[in-house]
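Hypothesis: this fold can be encoded by more than one sequence.
Test: take the structure tokens below, design a sequence, compare later.
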């Protein structure tokens, strides 16, 4: 079991504040299930002597299976940000599926899950409360991971070649900052635009445009958090926004505040 704990990943907004409030550990899945699962993650916090902390996240384009006391379920890709109130002491165990990796389990367009959640009963036919209690009662990350992997192996679908195909396209979009619009992704992959849009709806749950946009806004938020932004126009241009006002509109629409307001909130 390899722990990939490091700095908080992109998408955790105001990460410099967040890393003082909770810990995040990530673990590689076993070879037999890595076709579907990107990694496991565990968040823990102890704020018994502090005020509650509201953590906001701009999610990656992945479905997550989450075990949290009284709030377990399967969560589709959020369309904007989502916020989570951390108070007292607690923990969450999660399974982050590869982009497209949950489709073979659901066997229905992942877009049906976007911006919402569903129960383990609805997908796997098992009692959510019972499995939640069993997983969260285990004494360490390794045992929780083994129990959840055993559960997934019991319900493992056949590999779908489109999962690897879509997962690689999303990886390229994330890694290649020259991909600024859907046409760039089409040129990079050689895939027909309509085919790409159809596959993203079915396997990822959001459009290629949305995936590109959220990765670029991840970049923007990270640079703001790190204090490396000196000029808003330079930042917007580097992210592919040739109209600075368009960048501000997108940032506000997705993150909820303008870039300058976002920076002021962490001072």
């Amino acid at each position: 079991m390899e722990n990939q704990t490091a700095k908080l990943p992109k998408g955790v907004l105001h990460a410099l504040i967040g890393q003082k409030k909770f810990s995040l550990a990530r673990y590689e899945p076993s070879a037999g299930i890595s076709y579907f699962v990107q990694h496991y993650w565990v968040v823990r916090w102890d704020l018994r002597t502090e005020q509650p902390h509201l953590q906001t996240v701009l999610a990656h384009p992945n479905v997550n299976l989450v075990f949290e006391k009284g709030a377990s379920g399967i969560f589709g890709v959020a369309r904007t940000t989502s916020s989570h109130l951390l108070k007292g002491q607690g923990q969450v165990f999660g399974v982050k599926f590869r982009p497209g990796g949950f489709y073979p389990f659901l066997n229905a367009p992942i877009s049906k899950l976007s911006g919402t959640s569903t129960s383990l009963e609805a997908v796997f036919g098992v009692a959510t409360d019972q499995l939640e209690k069993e997983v969260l009662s285990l004494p360490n990350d390794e045992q929780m991971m083994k129990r959840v992997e055993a559960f997934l192996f019991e319900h493992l679908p056949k590999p779908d070649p489109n999962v690897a195909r879509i997962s690689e396209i999303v990886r390229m979009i994330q890694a290649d900052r020259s991909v600024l619009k859907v046409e760039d992704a089409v040129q990079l992959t050689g895939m027909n635009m309509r085919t790409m849009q159809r596959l993203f709806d079915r396997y990822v749950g959001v459009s290629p445009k949305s995936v590109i946009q959220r990765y670029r806004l991840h970049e923007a938020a990270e640079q703001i958090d790190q204090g490396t932004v000196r000029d808003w126009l330079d930042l917007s241009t580097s992210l592919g926004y040739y109209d600075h006002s368009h960048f501000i509109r997108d940032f506000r629409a997705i993150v909820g505040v303008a870039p300058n307001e976002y920076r002021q909130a962490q001072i």
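The chain has two domains: 15-154, 161-265. The longest helix spans residues 208-225.
Hypothesis status: open.
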